[in-house]
Amino acid sequence: MRVLVVEDDRDLNRQLCDALKSGGYAVDTAFDGEEGHFLGDTEPYDVAILDLGLPELDGISVLERWRKNARRMPVLVLTARDRWSDKVAGIDAGADDYVTKPFHMEEVLARVRALIRRAAGNASNDYVCGPVELDARASRVTVDGTLVKLTSHEYRVLAYLMMHQGRIVSRTELTEHLYDQDFDRDSNTIEVFIGRLRKKLGADIIETVRGLGYRVFSPGGEE
C-alpha cells in the first residue's frame, strides 16, 4: 500500500513516515500544499494523510482540488485545531476521516488501515484465501496456522493482491501502489517477488493471467 504524507512539521512528518514504513507501507512525503497537491494529483495513492495548516496552499484547498480533479483516494486530515467548524470544513471538502493533534501514532495507523479496508470493500483486518491468512494489523502471514516469514516487499505484494482478491492486478498497478517515487519501475522485481511468494506460501493461490497480471484466488475454484 502506498501512502502520501503532507505535513510541514518535519519532525512529525518523519515520525509518521517511520511509523508507516514500519507498518509495511511505501511512503512519499511533501512539506507544503503545492507539492502535496502535485503528488496527490499525479501519483496513485491508497491513502493520503493531509495536514490542514500548510504553507503555500492550505490543506482544505489541496483537498478541494484533488476532489475536483476526481482524485478519489481516502484522505485522513490532521489538524491542530479543535474548532468543530474546521473538522466540518475538512469533511465537506472531501476528507474521509480526521485526527486532532496531538495524537497517538497507533491511532493514525489504525485509521489508515480502516480507510484502506473501506476503500477495498473489506470489513476486517484479516484476509483469507484458502490456507493463507494475512493479518494487516500485525503484518503477519500464516499458512494453515503456521507463520511464514516474508520480507517487507514480499508482504506488500501479497497484501495488495489479497486485499483485491479475485481481481486481476497488473504489474504496473502493483508497482505504482507498492513503491515510492525512487523505485526502479523498469525492473523485473515484481516477478521475482511473485516467484518467492509462491515458494514460501507453498499454496497455489497466485495465478498469472498471461498478458494482464496476477490474481489471488482460493484453490478449488472459489475466488
UniProtKB/TrEMBL annotation:
Modified residue annotations for 4-aspartylphosphate: D51
Single Gene Ontology BP annotation: regulation of DNA-templated transcription
SMART domains associated with the record: REC, Trans_reg_C
DNA-binding feature ranges: 124-218
Domain of life: Bacteria
Any one of the GO CC terms: cytosol
This protein's UniProt keywords: DNA-binding, Phosphoprotein, Transcription, Transcription regulation, Two-component regulatory system
GO molecular function annotations of the record: phosphorelay response regulator activity; transcription cis-regulatory region binding
Protein name (database record): DNA-binding response regulator
Organism: Acuticoccus sediminis
